[in-house]
Amino acid sequence: MMSGKHFKAHEVSCCIKYFIFGFNIIFWFLGVAFLGIGLWAWSEKGVLSNISSITDLGGFDPVWLFLVVGGVMFILGFAGCIGALRENSFLLKFFSVFLGIIFFLELTAGVLAFVFKDWIKDQLNFFINNNIRAYRDDIDLQNLIDFTQEYWECCGAFGADDWNLNIYFNCTDSNPSREKCGVPFSCCTKDPALESKLSWQPLSTIMTGLQKEMEPSVFSPVGLYQHSKEDVINTQCGYDIRAKTDSEQRNFIYIKGCVPQFEKWLQENLTVVAGIFIGIALLQIFGICLAQNLVSDIDAVRESWVHAPCMQFVYLRPPQNLQRQEGCTRTLFFGRQRRKGNK
């Protein structure tokens, strides 16, 4: 028979454990996907076959975004996923510390950006101008700059003249390029007649005109969006534009620079941007708290095994195959108490 006081054993919360596991396995897979995209892009550009070419690009390679973000997500996802599944305190503590460092860096960057606005603006100007110089050197960088100028309807860092920094677009007499004194097509204003690349027409109108020559259309529930053959981007719209006067340039290209346009956009969408950053910060704090809670549960379970109360067994007749157990198990033989380790 067994006597002694019963005790309540500590348990690891399954809800917290599998929530951390499920959340981080998504991050883990996303990190693998981002790393795969980045490595594939470098493979297509021949960087993997010539590692030294990484430093050849004078501007910013957007592939680094995929590699850095993917690497961070992979490490966090791995530590959180495996740490929760295997109840590994070391990996969970590493997950919490790593996530805390990221949170601290984000908080520091936000405070510095608010306090040193002018310095941030100068650094952004330097960054954009440095990438303008390398515009034709990398197709990914070129696409990133074109997207930025089209989205914010801007040209250069503080104006179209910043494109004089590029060897293909500068206005020097020694420049043999056809793009001399020009700007990329992404600086050009949209033609009001062709501003919408897709024109909406009722389904009946499109169906009756299918015999006419046209580009393939995109179906919608109530109609069709039709591409016209005339909707072609004029990639030469910025040629020789900076040789014209400022008043003439306004009719063809964006005059404002991307730095003031970004600043204007940030002020107009400050609430949304702040909400996104606060949401990310709260998720990080929530993740740290959950991981620490799980670590506490794991440590409590281990502690309960080390300091478990002694179990007392009383035998009327000693069993033949009695095995002495490690720990503080006590056994009584015919009223005589014997404790392992005590003679």
From TrEMBL:
Its main location: membrane. The keyword Cell membrane does not apply. One of its GO terms (cellular component) is plasma membrane. It is a multi-pass membrane protein. Keywords: Membrane, Transmembrane, Transmembrane helix. PROSITE patterns: TM4_1. CDD domains: TM4SF9_like_LEL (cd03159). The keyword Oxidoreductase does not apply. It is found in: Membrane. InterPro entries: Tetraspanin/Peripherin, Tetraspanin_CS, Tetraspanin_EC2_sf. The chain crosses the membrane at residues 21-43, 63-85, 97-116, 272-295. Belongs to the tetraspanin (TM4SF) family. This is Uncharacterized protein. It comes from Etheostoma spectabile.
